[in-house]
Amino acid sequence: MASLPNPLPSLATSGLPLPPGTLVDATVDGPWHEPLLWMADEPASPGAWDELRAAGRAVGLLPVLIDGGRRDQWPDTWDLDPDSTSYPGDHDAEEVLGEYWDDCAPDELDEAEDEWPGLAPVPAVEARQSSDSLAAEIADECAGLDGWFPGVRAALVPARRSADIPAAIGWSGPLNHENDVARLCAVLRSWEDRFGIRVVVLGFDTLTVSVGRPPTTPAEARAVAAEHFAFCPDNIEQNPPYDLDEYAEKRVLNQETWSFWWD
Q1: pTM of the model
Q2: Contact 120, 227 (CB under 8 A)
């Protein structure tokens, strides 16, 4: 994957105010030639994501919360595969989603929807605050003992933009759906542009993003639900309500977080 110079090898001498942490270079093929991410050794407290954003921004590092899940799986056991990851900018989001739709929709959707409906429009209602500010608020809800993801750890990743974080580490969470996560990151880039998303939490096979400008009408939400189905069919096929219209109403309309899980 094309990338900027990686500041992680010199992190110890960078002067960044970081808690004790570990550089992760473990991949499915053995140690990578440079660290893929830095991760704190202890669980994150509310405020950690925003503090890391402020600290890392100047040197090209972006924050993400890492979820070890119930199985206590951390990135050194995730089978990261940067060698098989291309560059998100080399892919077109609409083409990627259209291909996924054509592969999955005819067999998996109950309703008769044969043609890819195209990308959803930018929501008509303006964002109520900056995307980074909302992401910081969502991250605070995720962290801490009483958070949505108890035990998450704060991490820094060398990436141009938040949407590129999965590709920057060679994340293989969606492997059963897509073996080059950069193609999914091309979609995340498009969502970043249209909906103000930020990658907030990454797990072994899960992804949670904040949504700075969510759909506010049923029609907008239904169009986004189609994109979600193409992006992650398991969200609809293996989780209630098993229907795009209901999914749009319950999981997309006015929702400031979107979560995805790949079987």
Answers
A1: 0.95
A2: yes
